[in-house]
Amino acid sequence: MNVLTPSTLDEALRHRAEFPDALPIQGGTDVMVDVNFDRARPETVINLNRVEELQGWRRDNGSLWLGAALSYTDVITSELASVVPALAEASRTVGSPPIRNRGTIGGNVATASPAGDALPPRLVEGAEVLLASTRAQRRLPLADFLVGPKTNALASDELIVGVRLTPCGQPQTFMKVGPRNAMVIAICSIALVADRERDELRAAFGSAGPVAGLITAPLSERSTFAEAVSNAASPIDDVRGTATYRRHALRVLVGRAMDRCLG
Amino acid sequence: MLRDRLGLPGSKNACEQGECGSCAVLLDDELVCSCLVLAAQSEGRSVVTVEGLRNGDILHPVQQAFIDAGAVQCGFCTPGLIVAAVDLLRHQPDPSEDEIREALAGNLCRCTGYAKIIDAVKLAATAGGGST
Predict the structure, then answer these.
(1) Three-state SS string across B23-85, please?
(2) Would you say A110 and A154 are in contact if contact means Cβ atoms under 8 Å apart?
(3) Residue A243 near residue A235, CB atoms below 8 Å
(4) pTM score, two decimals?
(5) Which residue from A196, A254, A263, B124 has the least number of CB within 10 angstroms?
(6) Is B48 on the interface with A (CB under 8 A)?
């Protein structure tokens, strides 16, 4: 295995253009599992750990830029915990402390798992994914970037640079169903915002369809919203739970989330 | 790399997917599952395994506490738990039981039922395990 370790984004993008089959790796919490289980045997790996441009987060004219290399621990332990509280709640449910130290919010987008915990909180905040290549930069709404289970819209020469969102500052929460508080792939999950400013309920579900999905309704439809979210999902039966259970759990979670956010 | 090339068998090669914590090490003072870090990603960085915690012949207070509390049975999970406990006590020298349980949630033990392990971390905290 050939490991390339660029120290700038330009260098990383040149590697990406030159070796389209190379596997980018940041925290490795998804990539290394595939390598260890022989599901991936990349000849070349692009180690992004030293690329400064992917690190950290910043405020930018009222919006928030989150670097692709931002770890779940960074989200939980920084000021971000109060700026994007649902994302912080979701981050705290990811894996365990060592996984949260290495796993990144950029990798979560790249993996595009229907169960990606940090996806629903970003869908309800209208996040965009920032992509770069040697050709151009572009931005895609997160909902458009997530194409299917473990499938995304990333071109073979692109890298995820970060995500941009405008924190609404409205009451929000994240909830997840699983057999333990730690090390759990969601049976289903929900992020919900009760946005009084826009008179809108926004909910995004995880693990209840091929991709995490967003549903909105006016606040006046509170009484039917849980049912609407449950109906909008398209869950399947799998090893973690049945479709019927998932629809039921989504209804319960959305109800509880609205109680939590609206009182 | 750690076990076969460097001869440091403390970190275990078990689940290989970050689920069990038995390979936990400190990478630049950050708790990580070493099975999910390419050796090349640690170039130029500090890696502390369980072998690196003791000071000469003197065990680290967390290691000593695991012995004193009877927190070791088969021993397979112990190195990872000790590294994770050291990391916890560095950040939180006087953790509550909930904090201990959350910090060790990524370390699986199939022998003890965790009660003695949690006792060991509390014992280490009273012994100043976070100071080293």
Answers:
(1) CEEEECCEEEEHHHCCHHHHCCCCEECHHHCCECCECCHHHHHHHHCCCCCCCCCHHHHHHHH
(2) yes
(3) yes
(4) 0.95
(5) A263
(6) no
User: Looking at domain A172-262, what is its CATH homologous superfamily?
Assistant: CO dehydrogenase flavoprotein, C-terminal domain (3.30.390.50)
B37–A contact, CB cutoff 8 A: yes
What pLDDT, in 10s, does the model give residues A87-118? 999 999 999 999 999 999 999 999 999 999 99
Nearest to B81 by CA among B55, B58, B112: B112
Contact yes or no for B103 and A97 at CB 8 A = yes
Closest A-chain CA to B32:
A98
Residues in chain B: 132
B16 touches chain A (CB under 8 A): yes
Under 8 Å between Cβ of B12 and B109? no
- pLDDT tens string B18-45: 999 999 999 999 999 999 999 999 999 9
The verdict on a CB contact (< 8 Å) between B16 and A36 is yes
Nearest to B21 among A25, A33, A96 (CB): A96
> pLDDT per residue over B39-66, tens digit each?
999 999 999 999 999 999 999 999 999 9
Domain map of chain A by residue range? 172-262
**Domains of chain B, CATH where assigned:** 24-131 (1.10.150.120)
Q: Say if the Cβ atoms of B37 and A99 lie within 8 Å.
A: no
Contact A29 B18 (CB under 8 A): yes
Structure tokens at B41: 């990603």
User: Considering only residues 58 to 117 of chain B, which have any Cβ-Cβ distance to chain A shorter than 8 Å?
Assistant: 84, 87, 102-103, 105-107
Residues 6+ apart with CB under 8 A from A182: A95, A96, B102, B105, B106
Q: Number of A to B CB contacts under 8 A, please give it.
A: 78
What residues of B are in contact with residue A25 (Cβ under 8 Å)? Answer: 38, 41
Which ipTM was obtained for this model? 0.95
Of A47, A102, A183, which is closest to B32 when you measure between CB atoms? A102
Phi, psi angles (nearest 5°) of residue B73: -115, -95
**Which residue of chain A comes nearest to B103, CA vs CA?**
A97
Whole-number Å distance between alpha carbons of B43 and B47: 10
Q: Are strands A2-4 and A44-47 parallel, antiparallel or unpaired?
A: parallel
Q: How far apart are CA B62 and CA B68, in angstroms?
A: 10
Q: Do A33 and B36 touch (CB under 8 A)?
A: yes
